[in-house]
C-alpha cells in the first residue's frame, strides 16, 4: 500500500515529565521514512496558553491542528501520522473521517476520554478521543464528530472512573488486553457498519517489557506480535483510511536506536501489501 507520512513532533498535549522527548521520538522516526512521501508539520517552540479552557497549552495545540489541516489537505490516500503526543490525532482523524463513515480503533493503554472538567492533569492527550466524539473544549471539537458506535477501544487497561462511566453510558466497545483477538476485533469493526478504518496506535498499548520509551507505561499490555496481528486483521476487514503512531519518548540516543525497530515493524504492518 502506498501511504504518505506526516511527522508532527508535538509535545504540548502531554502531561509527562518526558514530554519534550516526544520531539526526539518523532524526529527519529521521520529520519527513517522516505523523504519524498513525508511532510513535517512545524510545532511551536513555546508551551502556549490555556485561554481558560481547562486544557494546558491549548493555543499551541490549536496551531498544530491548523498546520496539520494544511498538510493533510493535499493528501489523496491513506496518511500515517507520526507523533508526538496523542493530540496529533485531532486533525488526522478529522481528515480521515471526511466521508463520515470511518471506524476508529483506539489501540492505547488509556482511553483518552476525559474532559476539561474531569481531567486530573489538564493534559490534552488524556482528552483527545472524547474531543473527537464532540465533547471537549469548543476550540478543538471537530465539525463532524465521531460516533461512539464506530469506536473500538483496544488493549485499554488504565481508566479513570469518569472514563469508565462514559464508556458504560455511550456503549463504546472495549476489548482489553486479556480478551482481544484478531477475530473479535474484526467482529467489532464489522458491527460498526463503517466502510474504512483508522488505527490510532499509542505505543503504550504495548507491554513495557516490549517497549519502554514512554511517558506513561502501563503493565500487562499487548506483545508486539499481538499488535501486528491486530493491525493486519483490521486492514483485512476494512480499507485503511489512515493511522497514527504516537508517544515515542526515548530518554537517550541509545534508547532511540534500540526501540526504533519496533516502530518500523508497526509501520511495516500498516503499509505492507495484503
Report what the structure shows.
By secondary structure, this protein is of the alpha/beta class. 34% of the residues lie in helices and 15% in strands. It is built from eight helices and eight strands. It has an eight-stranded parallel β-sheet with strand order 2-1-3-8-7-4-5-6, sandwiched between helices. Helix 1 (21-31) packs across helix 8 (253-271) and helix 7 packs parallel to helix 8. The chain is globular, with a radius of gyration of 17 Å.
Describe the secondary-structure layout.
Layout: E1 4-8, H1 21-31, E2 38-40, H2 58-72, E3 79-83, H3 89-96, E4 102-107, H4 128-132, E5 151-154, H5 161-170, E6 173-175, H6 182-191, E7 196-202, H7 224-237, E8 240-246, H8 253-271
Parallel strand pairs: 1-2, 1-3, 3-8, 4-5, 4-7, 5-6, 7-8
Helix pairs in contact: 1-8, 2-3, 6-7, 7-8
The radius of gyration over CA amounts to 17 Å
Largest sheet: 8 strands, parallel
How much is the average pLDDT? 97
Our estimate of the beta-strand percent is 5-15%
Shape: globular
Widest beta sheet: strand line-up: 2-1-3-8-7-4-5-6
What's the order of the H and E elements? EHEHEHEHEHEHEHEH
Terminal residue distance: 8 Å
The residue ranges in which pLDDT falls below 50 over 5 or more consecutive positions are none
Approximately how much helix is present in the residues?
Answer: 25-40%
Count of β-strands: 8
What class, by secondary structure content? alpha/beta
Tally of helical runs: 8
What are the salient characteristics of this protein?
eight-stranded parallel β-sheet; 8 helices; 15% strand; alpha/beta; globular; 274 residues; 34% helix
Amino acid at each position: 500500500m502506498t501511504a504518505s507520512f506526516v511527522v508532527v513532533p508535538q509535545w504540548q498535549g502531554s502531561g509527562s515529565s518526558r514530554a519534550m522527548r516526544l520531539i526526539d521520538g518523532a524526529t527519529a522516526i521521520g529520519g527513517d521514512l522516505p523523504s519524498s512521501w513525508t511532510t513535517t508539520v512545524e510545532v511551536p517552540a513555546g508551551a502556549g496558553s490555556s485561554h481558560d479552557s481547562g486544557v494546558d497549552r491549548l493555543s499551541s495545540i490549536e496551531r498544530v491542528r491548523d498546520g496539520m489541516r494544511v498538510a493533510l489537505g493535499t493528501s489523496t490516500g491513506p496518511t500515517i501520522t507520526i507523533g508526538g503526543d496523542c493530540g496529533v490525532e485531532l486533525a488526522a482523524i478529522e481528515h480521515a473521517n471526511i466521508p463520515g463513515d470511518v471506524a476508529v480503533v483506539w489501540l492505547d493503554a488509556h482511553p483518552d476520554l476525559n474532559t476539561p472538567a474531569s481531567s486530573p492533569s489538564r493534559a490534552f492527550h488524556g482528552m483527545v478521543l472524547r474531543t473527537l466524539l464532540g465533547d471537549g473544549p469548543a476550540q478543538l471539537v471537530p465539525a463532524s464528530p465521531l460516533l461512539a458506535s464506530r469506536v473500538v477501544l483496544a488493549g485499554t487497561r488504565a481508566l479513570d472512573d469518569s472514563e469508565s462511566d462514559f464508556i458504560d453510558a455511550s456503549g463504546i466497545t472495549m476489548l482489553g488486553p486479556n480478551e482481544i483477538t484478531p477475530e473479535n476485533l474484526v467482529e467489532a469493526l464489522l458491527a460498526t457498519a463503517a466502510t474504512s478504518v483508522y488505527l490510532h496506535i499509542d505505543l503504550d498499548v504495548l507491554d513495557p517489557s516490549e517497549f519502554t520509551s514512554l511517558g506513561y507505561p502501563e503493565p500487562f499490555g499487548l506483545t508486539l506480535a499481538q499488535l501486528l496481528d491486530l493491525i493486519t486483521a483490521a486492514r483485512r476487514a476494512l480499507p485503511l483510511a489512515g493511522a497514527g503512531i504516537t508517544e515515542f519518548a526515548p530518554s537517550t540516543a541509545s534508547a532511540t536506536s534500540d526501540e526504533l525497530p519496533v516502530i518500523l515493524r508497526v509501520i511495516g504492518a500498516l503499509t505492507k501489501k495484503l
